[in-house]
Amino acid sequence: MILEAAPQVDQELNPWQSAAHRFNEAAELLKLEDGMRKVLRTPSMELTVNIPVMLDDGRIEVFTGYRVQHSIARGPAKGGIRFAPDVSLDEVRALAAWMTWKCAVVNIPFGGGKGGVICEPHLMSEGELERLTRRYTAEICEFIGPERDVPAPDVNTNEQTMAWIMDTYSMHKRHTVTAVVTGKPLALGGSLGRPEATGRGCMIVTMQALKKFGLAPYNTRVIIQGFGNVGGMAARLMSEKGFKVIGIVEYDGAVFNDKGLDIPKLMAHRRDTGSVRGFSEGEHVDKDEALLRDCEVLIPAARENVITSTNAAGIKAKILCEGANGPTTFAADSILAENKVFVIPDILANAGGVTVSYFEWVQDRQGYFWNEKLVNERLEEIMIGSFWDVTNFADKHGVNNRTAAYMLALDRVANAIRLRGLYA
Predict the structure, then answer these.
(1) How many domains does the chain have?
(2) Average pLDDT of 233-253?
(3) How far apart are CA 328 and CA 333, in angstroms?
């Protein structure tokens, strides 16, 4: 299989296309045989379910849900479940593949999975969301489990969603199965350190990147796009480490302070008002223009397709740390490389979440739980080791960090498949 051409503009925002192009580039450089490429490229299982739900007003609505298991070569599939109106099978496929590569990059024994339900959760009551979650779980119940596929929270889902999934699955199995999901409440087998894990992982790899450039946190200006679990935690942890977080960009606007934002105050303001707008200690600017401001570190930590061929040339950051899944399109990669932006790719940068999810799964299966200090120490050890694995691989093979991360991941998964052989 030869490399495909860069995606056209109308295909640039399709995450499956971006995932496929990056896969093809890494596979070509690794000189993977055609049969192995077919195995690695093709999802192991794709499930589409239709979910009837009784709404609060007595009407019945039918929602469409997906679960994709991309690979189980290195262990059970692992990946979140998102509730959003724009969920598509292509998106879920891409996210499942990214999870395979992400788990391989940090060398934890999982494959990749992902799920989603097409709905508008902000317009649904808690009771409607619970009924939707439980029926979706019942529909995919035979395809998930601690040894098969372990879901987790994602966009518009949280620890309560995971508690409903765990309970529903356990009722079907007739005994409590805490390890069926991660990201659960602590009282139901969750792990200390899990809520902060993705943001903490971003901070850890950014600290390693500063070492490469001879920078210190107190001289480092940071702009973060997204102020939810990932972006908010990264902002808080980085400000505590001395980074100067000068900008927070949200869906409804952006707030800046060149001297550094008071993150705890901004968090309190957002809790009280539901927005970063109106914060008295910052300048308010257009959210698109905000990404193009001067800084040393830019962290896109919300959704896919934030940095594209239309705005990549304007990125002024020295370091781009991808806290979200797929925030940069394939077409933007070459522009960033030409401008010498040091990219910490998503399958490395945001792997802190799945790493501590792995710790949670291990603790549930052991029935023995770690303190937060041990969780954070083990997370730091894995993230630092993985950062240097990727950057050393990039230097050795003369490629950028994203290509190196994909090559490293593909090589590890392909090696597992070769060792296992093909069952026939």
Answers:
(1) 2
(2) 96
(3) 7
